[in-house]
Amino acid sequence: MKKNPIGKYISQKWYRYLIAMVCMLISIGLDMCAPMVTKRIIDNVIVAGQETLLMGYLFMLLGIGVGRSVTQYVKQVMFDLAGVEIACKMRKNLFSHIQKLSMNFFHNNNTGELLARTKDDVDHVWDVLGFVGMLIIEGVIHTVSILICMFQLSPYLTVIPVLILPVIGWIAVSLEKRLDGIYGEISEQNAELNTVAQENLSGVRTVKAFAREEYEIEKFTRHNQRFYDLNMEQAKTQAKYEPNITFLTKTLLILVLLAGGIFVMTGSLTLGALGAFMQYANSILWPMENIGWLSNCLASAIASNRKINKILMEEPEIQDPEKEPKASQLPDGDMQLEFSHVNFTLDGNEILEDITFTLPQGKTLGIMGMTGTGKTTIVNLMQRFYDVTSGVILLNGKDIRELPLQTVRGACETVMQDIFLFSDTIEGNIRLGNRADMESQTVKEAARTAHAASFVERMNQKYDTVIGERGVGLSGGQKQRISLARALAKQAPILIMDDATSALDMETEHAIWQELQTKEHCSKVIIAHRISAVKNADEIIVLKNGRIAERGTHEELMQQQELYYSTWEAQYGDYHKALEVIGEEELICQ
């Protein structure tokens, strides 16, 4: 994607900026007229004694004041509206671009940094496109206009501001260069501070469970202190340069008054012209005094835009194929999923090697293995969160890399291992897969199948109950059942359950599996550590070190007495031995 197209954004709001610029020019023109009226009042009324002209001059000043108020109001409203609209669109485009990026991007960038880019950095750019930008443009035009008017009154006196202005400009440029680097560091530290706070608040239960409040406070304090130090460095830099600007502006007024007084006494300048010149000199001070602050804002916006561009220049690794009608169509027929000699390497580490299996529609595939053997990676590849390193994944005989992402991901309904529920109603969470068109009856049926209806309907607001962020307030089992209901409500042809019943009791788990067995047209991929979850699968594959070490039905794997059998022994061996002992004792008693 191209860099942040600020010029394009501005061109889309050209009419607002045009109105604002016209009003600004009129306002500046009126500002330039006011000292000339003052000159005439002094020379013609006060010095020459033409009192009859006074009312006319006063009405001119009143008209200038009213006209300036109206144009200033319209100018500021137009600049603010344009800035707000551009910032809104810029933030939306940035967020949309982030949503399109691949999973690898989110592994390498933390949440706090992304929040800082979409909020704080866009706000800094917004400032320059709105109020701050207006002041910068107005300050430049205002200063040039005043210098022209000054030159017309007295070319000699104009030498004083002409000599002082470049010095102030040099100080402002020096200040901007110093602040540019500081603002970049402040932006980075702000992102880190957001990350620390966000992680702590999201994991507050874990923090409290391990009594780590003091440690978290200390960690936050370290980042907060660094943020404080950078802002103090910024303040010291401003304190070093800005007094020089203020001193030079005051010196300007003193020199103009002294030199102008001499010109008046020698007759080369009228008293009214000196009064007008002093008014111009006083009016030129605000751009000069604010040049440091405006430079700060400009430097901050440039640094923020650089950060935004860094994200916008990221290209998603996983993209839709070229839109060719034949290539992007999913072949008709039963939904069959096939892995053919799939290998996957991530960051130089081989995760999966030679994974091959076929899942016909309506069948169930169980996947088992120790932690880190690549079970969840298979799910990620199914949904094309990553692309295979070699081999191919097929849907109905079609390489999923040749299908639209929406088609690939729409074919799967997934219950993730890491459950995420949004701060929304229970019905809103279940509707996630098809929020606009899903009927309430579908939501309730999915909740019933997932055995979530029993506790949802006991709540005061039932399906309209708002749950907290990440499902706070619900037990682990309740969250898993709502997550399962969300997947079932989507009604996709393939159901993927990644350790989806680990928080459920055995009785509820068994009841859910019984319900799922009735969905004969839905293919199921069940990843689990419990044998009870996969024992009824049509095929079970056991992973070891990223390879398929065993495969077969429950009975076939039990006969092999290898990895699967060892797992069964670890989970149920003592239980069955106890049953055997009880059985023998009963026989003896009989």
| Total discrete domains | 2
Assembly classification: single chain
Q: Based on the structure given, which CATH architecture of the largest domain is correct?
A: Up-down Bundle
Helix content, binned percent: 55-70%
In DSSP terms (H or I, runs of 4 or more residues), the helix count works out at 22
CATH homologous superfamily of the largest domain, by name?
ABC transporter type 1, transmembrane domain
Strands of the largest sheet, in order across it?
6-7-8-3-9-10
Which strand-content bin applies to the residues?
A: 5-15%
Rg over alpha carbons: 36 Å
CATH structural class of the largest domain: Mainly Alpha
Tell me the layout of helices and strands.
Layout: H1 6-12, H2 14-47, H3 54-100, H4 103-108, H5 111-129, H6 131-153, H7 155-202, H8 204-209, H9 213-266, H10 271-283, H11 285-289, H12 291-312, E1 337-346, E2 349-359, E3 364-369, H13 375-382, E4 390-395, E5 398-399, H14 405-410, E6 412-415, H15 426-430, H16 440-449, H17 453-456, H18 476-490, E7 494-498, H19 506-517, E8 523-527, H20 531-534, E9 539-544, E10 547-552, H21 554-560, H22 563-589
Parallel strand pairs: 3-8, 3-9, 6-7, 7-8
Antiparallel strand pairs: 1-2, 1-4, 4-5, 9-10
Helix pairs in contact: 2-3, 2-6, 2-10, 3-5, 5-7, 5-12, 6-7, 6-10, 6-12, 7-9, 7-12, 9-10, 16-18, 21-22
